[in-house]
């Protein structure tokens, strides 16, 4: 007797999953466009990855542009599932330079911007380390 799936509404059909991926709305693309945190941030916040945002500092660790210095995210282009990084550029045939699109999963976040504690309520409590009310509580009001 064949066993039943845990959730009958979840499909493993490749074409259906690709359709959902490429037709996903913006709020779901944000979640898909997460990048892993550096080892220091992972230890500090006890979180493996976070959605990428503009002004985050990242380092490319896969592909042609890997190993270059840390750069800021200039733009998050959800429609194409890519981010543009400050120093990751190439020269076109006519001499102008353009940013090269990199998928966020191929980068490590080294500094998750100024408002990192607002991204997850848990992070605000981790930062304070005390019983004082977190910044998150002030923002929610």
Automatic annotation (TrEMBL):
Q: Does the keyword Oxidoreductase apply?
A: no
Gene Ontology cellular component annotations, sorted alphabetically: large ribosomal subunit
Q: Which domain of life is it from?
A: Eukaryota
Ranges of residues in domain KOW: 51-79
Keyword Lyase recorded: no
Locate the region Disordered: 1-24
The UniProt entry, under Pfam families, shows: KOW, Ribosomal_L26
**What GO biological process terms does the UniProt entry carry, in alphabetical order?**
translation
Q: Which PROSITE patterns match?
A: RIBOSOMAL_L24
Q: Name one GO molecular function term.
A: RNA binding
What keywords does the record list, in alphabetical order? Ribonucleoprotein, Ribosomal protein
Q: Which InterPro entries match?
A: KOW, Rib_uL2_dom2, Ribosomal_uL24_CS, Ribosomal_uL24_euk/arc, Ribosomal_uL24_KOW, Translation_prot_SH3-like_sf
UniProt record similarity statement: Belongs to the universal ribosomal protein uL24 family.
What NCBIfam families does the annotation carry? rplX_A_E
State the name under which the record lists this protein: Ribosomal protein L26
Provide the species name: Apteryx owenii (Little spotted kiwi)
